Structure formats: structure tokens, C-alpha cells
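Action item from last week, closing it out:
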Amino acid sequence: MSWIPAARLAMAFASENCLVEGVCPAGHPMRSAGCVRRNYAYHALSPVRSFRNALEISAPDLIVPADDRSTHLLHELYWNEVRQHPTGSRLASLIERSLGSADSFPVVESRAKFLARANDLSIRVPKSIELSGSEALHEVASEFGYPFVLKADGTSGGYGVRIVHSQDESRSAFRSLHAPPMLARAIKRAIIDRDRNLLLPALTRRIPTISAQMFVQGSDVTSTVACWEGKVLGALHFEVVRKRYELGPASVMQWIDHPEMQAAVEKIVADMKLSGIHGFDFVLEKATGHAYLVEINPRTTQVGHLRLGEGRDLPGALCAASRGSEPARSMPVCSGQTVALFPQEWMRDPASTFIKESYHDVPWEEPKLLQLCIDRAKKQRLPGKSKQSALAALRNLGTSTLHEDAGSTCMPAEVSRLGNAKGNENLSGLTVTRK
């Protein structure tokens, strides 16, 4: 997936004196990040071979998947290696070192299996049922009542989730989620959006597994953790304040301290012997404040790169564990608890008060990546604001961030880092002056 957080995490690892290389298609944000030493080609019609070739050439110490598809392909490559080399495989060992015990692979790929595992650990979860067909929807409605949630395995970003309020809605949503991608849509995505991931499922008519989940009324919260051999090294717990769109990715998040969430992720990580960076989605029930675990994201999330101080610096903690050393002390990137994610919140509302009053996570250090974000935004409709006013808003933000006192929009460490790069960068008519 052509997600910007992959490039942001690459920046974070590079700052830990890591040599970072990527496997990604043409046009991916990692190809715009100067910190990435080399990018290997990704071919959507032979994805496992793409990963194998890149890993054999690169011979890395650690692999960090940046989306669900990548995790699935690493699992597939692992099982291929085990079958072909039953006495031992260097690639299989590397994948297990990076992601954790292979026994966890089938669990993290199935929403229903994962929630069943969490329930066995006495973690609070909503009731969930894996559906064999649409005929089971009536039974689900009788047990759960309306509304309830339908989810397709192997999807992310809210695209495989439907909240249904009636029998007709549930049947329509099930048909939509259970159908393989239309070939015409897959071709359009490949040509126009440069996203070829739907081609193979469309050609092979691959049908995802659908599960039904009881709806919990409350607010969305997330945990992203760095872990090593079943131990949590660092954790970020956030409440979602704003989203780009309904059921979509967050655009504004507020850091919280929540012992129940911390205890839940520690139980899961220990039981499944996980390594790497993983995300966990919860719902804080409105009536009780209880945290219900609703799913796992077996890869980094869009906040995985954020450094928020001791115990909340995931790249630093993971690098130290993989090297067998203690993590270095790191300064938090912001003093407040609210983070406006870029470009999500800027695209949602360029005049957002969250951009002005909280930490706006703009990658000023990487002008080409920033340019890519702007170019993408120009191709999309920005609700309620023109593209010109959106660019003007970012220009004003850039001026205040780089030239005002550090206490206004970013920490002194951030200003110091920006000060190391001198000169001007022209970004679609937006000039960022670096002192």
C-alpha cells in the first residue's frame, strides 16, 4: 500500500543509525524519502518473489512490515521456506525473528481467531462470529441485535468494515465484502492509482473471510507497541479525536494513559510471543469506560514513528532490543498530548484548530516527501476548502513552525534539527525557508 507512514518510520529508523532499505512499488512515499538507501521493485503479480529477491540481496537484520498485505506476504514466504527447507532456512529465521513466533501467524490474519485468543486470556472483547455464508446473518442479528459490525479479513483503513442497522443493510454489506474485487476496478486502480494489489485477487477470484462483531457504543482508541520475543518494550496509547472520514483513518489523536489497555497488549504480546511493531484497536465503552479490544494490526501504524519520550519511543526501543543494548534516552517531539497527523488533518480541514493549537506532524526534514503529500492532496477534493487555501494554510504553518519561538508549535529539538538543513525548498508554490 502506498502509505506515507512507511516513509515516516523509515526516517525514524534512519535517525537510529540504521541503514534502511525498502520493498515498494513505483510512486511509493519511501521512494521520496532521502533517508532510504535503496528501494527494491515490488511486482503485484509475483509479490512473494519480490520479497524473497529483496531480502536475499539486502540480507537485513530486521524486517518491519508497513501494511497488512506485507505481513501476509511475509507469512506466505515463511511457510514456503519451511516447506522447501525443512531442516532450516535463513529467511524463515529472519522473518520469525522480526515478527515473532510463527504460531501467531494464523491468529493475526483472522479477526475471529484473534478475538477468540484474546477472550481465552480474559481480555475484554466484543462477541464475534466467523460467517460461513449470508444465511448466518439472521442468527447474528438475533444474538447481537442491531447495529452490529461486519469485517473482512485482510483489509485495513476502514475499507473492509460495515456497521449495519437492518437485515437489508447486512445482506447488502455481506455481498459487497464477500465478493472478490471486480477486474475493471482492479485495472483502474492499477493504471490510475498505481495500486496493483487488487490484480491478483481479481484474477484468481479470491474471496475474503467475513466475521460479524457485536457493536460497542463508545470512542475509538488505539495502542501501538514495540515488542521483542513476547515482551512489550514501549507503547503508545491514543484516543481518536478526528477521522478523515467515517470508519477511516484517524487525523487527530490524543495520547492517553490507560492501564487496562496496557495490560491487555502485554498479555497478547506475551501469549503470542510477538516481536516488531504491532497495533491494537480498542473501543472505550461510553457507559462504563471499559476498553474492548476489537482487532490487531500486525504491522506498524500511522503513529509508530512518533517519539514521545521514555517508554514511548518505539523505533528506538526496537532497534536497541535487536542490537542487544539499552535504548538511548530520547526527547519527546512535542510537549502536549494532542497530535494532528499530516497530511490527514490538513486534508480534512486546512483551517483546523488542531493544526494551529497542537503538534502538527509535518515531515519538514524530507522536502521530496512533503512535496509528494502536497501533490496527492491536489488530486483530491479538500472538503469545504479550495486547494489554494489549503496550500496557503500549509505555507503559514511552515513559516510559524520554522521562524517563531520553539514553544509555539514544536519542541526546541525539532527546531534544532530543522536548522541543520539550510536553504530554500520550493514545494508547489510553497517556499519553506530553513534558517
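Closing note: Confidence is low (pLDDT under 50) at residues 399-435.
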